[in-house]
Amino acid sequence: QLQLVASGGGLVQPGGSLRLSCAPSGFSLDHYAVAWFRQAPGKEREGVSCISNSDSSTYYADSVKGRFAISRNIAEDTVYLQMNSLKPEDTAVYYCAAASPITTVQAMCGGSTIGPLYMGQGTQVTVSS
Q1: Alpha-carbon Rg of the chain, whole angstroms?
Q2: 3-state DSSP assignment of residue 121
Q3: Does residue 38 contact residue 45 with C-beta atoms inside 8 Å?
Q4: What is the average pLDDT across 55-67?
Q5: CB count, 10 Å around CB of 62?
Q6: Rounded to 5°, angle at Cα 55 from 113 and 80
Q7: Are 49 and 118 in contact (CB under 8 A)?
Q8: Residue 69 and residue 111: Cα distance in Å, rounded?
Q9: Is residue 75 over pLDDT 80?
Q10: Engineered SS bond to 99: which of 26, 42, 87, 117, CB 3.0-4.6 Å?
């Protein structure tokens, strides 16, 4: 079973920034596309952003476009989610996930992959004054 470790969450004021990290345990992310999902209490899981392993193509949900940026550091074998201009509605538990192969990053963010989707544990992000 592949394991992913998400970190970097916390409490931040509206307008602030956080950077989430997703690191693998016991395997390499080299050949995996990576997704960030979030789930707020009482709401469905939402695909926030995804990045492919082949051409580094990316996808962002409309709710975060222009504010969040996903990136992959190959040397560190880590995927980051830089979150800027945070809003109270961004409050949620954020999860990273990996899969290979995938069809498109948009499909992955919708929860559809060819290979199994491995979900890591979450990190809480709270945006509040």
Answers
A1: 14
A2: strand
A3: yes
A4: 95
A5: 6
A6: 75
A7: no
A8: 19
A9: yes
A10: 117
